[in-house]
Amino acid sequence: MARPESEHPTELELEILKVLWDESPLPVREVRARLETEADRPLAHSSVITMLNIMHRKGFLRRRKDGKAFLFTPKVKKESVSGGMMGDLLSRVFDGSPSAMMLNLLETADIDADELAELRKLINRKAKERQS
């Protein structure tokens, strides 16, 4: 029995989306080349075609014919995908508690002083927005 499709991209689908968010539209050969160089993910040409077609069927990508090739463009925005994945993680792992999620991130990630300062600025800005 096949597993049900997730509403979120798989690991490989996410790598493909990252390539296409950086630059698109791209033909299959360019997507494959970038997966090999940027994501260190060597794949057969036919595997990339299959993945791109699956992603098109799932609604993650648009494709248009250009001569003999198809050009692929993301149909979903990076912010939408990351927000959905974060929301899923928040509810499934942290029982909907943003503070528990942030505490876990702060305790487990290697965050330098500059990143901590940036996080403080973002938190202060968000607090001011809530007061307004």
Features:
elongated; 2 domains; 132 residues; 3 strands; 6 helices; 64% helix; mainly alpha; three-stranded antiparallel β-sheet; Arc Repressor Mutant, subunit A
Q: Which helices and strands occur, and which strands form pairs?
A:
Layout lengths: L10 H12 L3 E2 H11 L6 H14 L2 E6 L2 E6 L3 H17 L3 H11 L4 H19 L1
Helix pairs in contact: 1-2, 2-3
Q: Can you offer a commentary on this structure?
A:
By secondary structure, the protein is mostly helical. It has two domains: 1-93, Winged helix-like DNA-binding domain superfamily/Winged helix DNA-binding domain (Arc Repressor Mutant, subunit A, Orthogonal Bundle); 97-132. It is 64% helix and 11% strand. The protein has six helices and three strands; from the N terminus they run αβααββααα. It has helices spanning 11-22, 28-38, 45-58, 78-94, 98-108, 113-131; strands at 26-27, 61-66, 69-74. The model has no long low-confidence stretch (mean pLDDT 92).
Write a short abstract of this structure.
The chain has helices at 11-22, 28-38, 45-58, 78-94, 98-108, 113-131; strands spanning 26-27, 61-66, 69-74.
